[in-house]
Design a protein that fits this description.
Blueprint: H1 2-24, E1 28-32, E2 35-36, E3 49-53, E4 56-61, E5 71-74, E6 79-82, E7 84-89, H2 97-103, H3 106-122, E8 125-130, H4 136-143, E9 151-154, E10 158-160, H5 177-180, H6 185-188, E11 192-194, H7 198-210, E12 216-219, H8 238-250, E13 255-259, H9 262-271, E14 275-278, H10 284-293, E15 296-298, H11 302-305, H12 317-340, E16 343-344, H13 354-357, H14 362-366, H15 373-388, E17 413-416, H16 430-433, E18 434-439, E19 442-446
Parallel strand pairs: 1-5, 2-6, 7-8, 8-9, 10-11, 12-13, 13-14, 14-15, 15-16
Antiparallel strand pairs: 1-3, 3-4, 6-17, 17-18, 18-19
The structure holds zinc ion.
Length: 452
């Protein structure tokens, strides 16, 4: 009798166990009836389904069989493509730099940045390389699934010399020296790290990497928006720059450098910096050196195609003058980069207000002056994905490729109404044209009718 009871109990338990096992398997989502742009090739692949399991793409083949719990999404013949990547954002800089750091409460800036992260994802950007700002907390909340937003490769605090682009004049904005000492808020809240001399820059790199940065962002020249520095100034000595690169390398990652003047770009490239931000005034010889060394050019079209008044914020006269000076070189650097076949990143550097950040996607169409729709799409997907691999073991997302549709890649996917290979402008109207947005296997938007 006892044995029979045990047998009955076992039989009752078996289907439950089977169900539990089914549930423990990662969720399958199968995309059918889609045309695939894989981020790499200048064509649309037809006749293949894409199977997502958990947060990865696991199979791309005709007529894939799924388990019975799978969800099937019919793309109605629309284009399935990798999520976009922006290689130069400042998610935290939702007000002009000085105001973001000194004027407003950190929680207000963080609240705006949280909204900016959501909008970034809704524009189809599933990954960003954040080029500076205290973004770790936001990244944590996104990665935990608490708030929607892109994957973030954080640079955290800028590393700058005294009087350099990251030195945001604290003289009138000290916190109470009684309670906080003479601590600059820019440093206190992780916006910037001012360091001079080899020992100090080594310490700065170590601290920034300790904070969780996936690469370090250094200020190698004067800037447009900096408080003090004229555009032509070279910042950091070759010795300092080499020390920075060496420290980053020891952590298995790299340095990206803000640099405008030819001297600054050359010094950075010779020291081993692997990504030049802006680079507008680099000479043909320096650009060819970048080509030879495989250094990425991460410059921007949209920003420099604007006029001073288009930014919607009041620009001090000296800043406006520096902006107009830089603007003159933008077209030249794009044409030369194309001519020499440089590794082109795709980034926007749009910051200062949510409205300005909303123009992010227009960088896609701005580049049509220099590149084909396919070349631009490739920059914003697989090429940026390749750039991000420079973070090596410091990559926060090391378990799959980004910016491509390939077996084993992360499931960061968009379904687009329209063909971006023919007309990239469809991606500048994401509210209408992005019918599905998936990041890390999770669907954040879906306006398609599904089969059940
Ligand atoms: Zn920037």
């Amino acid at each position: 009798m006892k044995r029979l009871l045990m047998l009955l109990m076992l039989l009752a338990w078996l289907p439950v166990a089977a169900q539990a096992q089914e549930k423990a398997k990662p969720q399958q989502i199968l995309f059918v009836n889609v045309k695939i742009f894989d981020g790499v090739h200048n064509r649309l692949i037809t006749g293949k389904d894409v199977l997502v399991e958990g947060n990865h793409i696991v199979k791309i083949a005709p007529k894939i069989k799924t388990n019975r719990m799978a969800r099937i999404i019919d793309g109605h013949g629309k284009v399935l493509m990798p999520g976009l990547i922006n290689a130069h954002t400042h998610l935290m800089v939702t007000k002009p730099f000085d105001q973001a750091i000194y004027t407003y409460e950190p929680s207000y800036i963080a609240a705006l940045a949280t909204e900016e992260a959501r909008r970034t994802l809704m524009r189809g950007f599933t990954t960003v390389r954040d080029a500076g700002g205290p973004v770790m907390g936001l990244k944590r909340a996104i990665d935990e699934g608490v708030v929607p937003g892109p994957r973030i490769f954080p640079s955290n605090a800028f590393i700058s010399q005294t009087g350099g682009h990251g030195d945001f004049d604290p003289s009138m904005t000290y916190l109470s020296s009684y309670f906080a000492g003479q601590m600059d808020k820019a440093y206190l809240f992780g916006w910037t790290y001012t360091a001079d001399g080899v020992p100090e820059v080594r310490k700065a790199v170590r601290e920034v990497l300790r904070s969780g940065a996936s690469q370090v962002k250094i200020m190698a020249s004067g800037s447009i928006t900096g408080a003090h520095d004229p555009l032509d100034v070279t910042e950091f000595t070759p010795d300092e720059m080499r020390a920075i690169v060496q420290e980053a390398k020891k952590w298995g990652t790299y340095a990206m450098a803000h640099a405008y003047s030819d001297d600054a770009v050359r010094t950075a490239v010779e020291a081993g910096v692997l990504s030049i931000e802006h680079g507008l005034m680099a000479s043909p010889e320096t650009l060819q050196l970048m080509k030879k060394k495989g250094v990425w050019l991460s410059t921007q079209c949209l920003n420099y195609s604007k006029n001073v008044e288009d930014f919607g914020v009041e620009m001090p006269a000296n800043v406006a003058a520096k902006f107009n000076e830089a603007k003159k070189s933008a077209e030249r650097v794009f044409r030369l980069a194309k001519k020499y076949g440089l590794k082109m990143a795709w980034g926007t550097d749009t910051f200062g207000s949510l409205d300005v950040q909303d123009t992010e996607s227009q960088e896609l169409t701005c580049r049509k002056k220099y590149f084909s729709d396919f070349e631009i799409l490739k920059q914003a997907t697989s090429l940026n994905g390749e750039l991000l691999t420079l973070s090596g073991k410091r990559s926060p997302y090391p378990d799959g490729a980004l910016g491509v549709i390939r077996e084993g890649a992360y499931a960061d996917l968009l379904i687009v109404d329209g063909n971006p290979l023919k007309d990239i402008a469809v991606l500048t109207r994401p509210e209408q044209t992005l019918v599905l947005i998936m990041k890390d296997g999770k669907i954040y938007k879906n306006t398609l009718q599904e089969k059940h």
